[in-house]
Amino acid sequence: MKRSYIFLATQRKRHHNIMTSPVLFARNINVTLGGNPILKNVSLNMPKGSLKVLIGPSGAGKSTFLQTLNYLIPYDSGKLELHGKVVDVDNKKELYAYRQQVGMIFQDFNLFDHLNAIDNVAIALRKVKGMKKSEANIRAMAELTRVGLEEKGDLYPAELSGGQKQRVAIARALAMDPTVLLLDEPTSALDPELVGEVLSVIRDLTKAGLTMVMATHQMDFARALAHEIVFMQDGEIIEQGSPAELLREGSKTRTGDFCARLEMSIDEE
Ligand SMILES: Nc1ncnc2c1ncn2[C@@H]1O[C@H](COP(=O)(O)OP(=O)(O)OP(=O)(O)O)[C@@H](O)[C@H]1O
Ligand SMILES: [Mg+2]
């Protein structure tokens, strides 16, 4: 009893004030692609309500890791635990149920071009959750409203801006009531003036207590909102800690070094 109290106390300290029961735990994940080791013993613990931001150079393995987290990319060894229970990825039914709880947002939105915004959100509610059309549409409108698109429901992807498309994609993921949301550079395909509206939706989700892992180069956002920054390089996690720990003025961390170079390259543009 006492031990678990101490464990919780240290965890709390590390993660500010967020609740700390691990929702998802990826343990010792190894992935080989095309004969090359791409992820090497990567472990990540996602406490409830935490936002972890993945950063690192191109080719570090961030996208591979995110896709491994919902088993779009299978791993050679390691395990995924949801609420403390190992996911049996070889059991189709269990894997399907797991995937429903782990939402994914991609850089390029992945919307259905032949469906309007409402139907893009409603289709999974009907097909996966078995909702009636009217019920699915009501829920879809609620999620579109949550991301500020209550007036755009009838529009098709071609009629929406990049930022709006990405917000539809987020609404679609939220409609499934995900336990964890994975975001792979959700703003990097957007014109600079559209980045803010998507980040602001993600900011609202952190406030609502959604558990998220996000790969991004938006360091101001990470600094302000990440509970933890996870720095990856060559398929490994090299550093991990709060923005305050890793980005303190004058601290000699790989993360700080990387950010300084990132900011320099943005200034040069
Ligand atoms: N199907 C594949 N076969 C072989 N190698 C692959 C495959 N997919 C990815 N890789 C390699 O895995 C490494 C990690 O790629 P990944 O896309 O995960 O990096 P990343 O950190 O997301 O990079 P970026 O910042 O550019 O998005 C790269 O070296 C890439 O070439
Ligand atoms: Mg990537």
Automatic annotation (TrEMBL):
It comes from the Bacteria. It is a peripheral membrane protein. InterPro entries: AAA+_ATPase (IPR003593), ABC_ATPase_HisP-typ (IPR030679), ABC_transporter-like_ATP-bd (IPR003439), ABC_transporter-like_CS (IPR017871), MetN_ABC_transporter-like (IPR050086), P-loop_NTPase (IPR027417). PROSITE patterns: ABC_TRANSPORTER_1, ABC_TRANSPORTER_2. Its main location: membrane. It is found in: Cell membrane. GO terms for cellular component: plasma membrane. Keywords: Amino-acid transport, ATP-binding, Cell membrane, Membrane, Nucleotide-binding, Transport. Residues 24-259 form the ABC transporter domain. It holds the Pfam family ABC_tran. The keyword ATP-binding applies. GO terms for molecular function: ABC-type amino acid transporter activity; ATP binding; ATP hydrolysis activity. The keyword Glycosyltransferase does not apply. PANTHER family: AMINO ACID IMPORT ATP-BINDING PROTEIN, GLUTAMATE_ASPARTATE IMPORT ATP-BINDING PROTEIN GLTL. Belongs to the ABC transporter superfamily. This is Probable amino acid ABC transporter, ATP-binding protein. It comes from Desulfotalea psychrophila (strain LSv54 / DSM 12343).
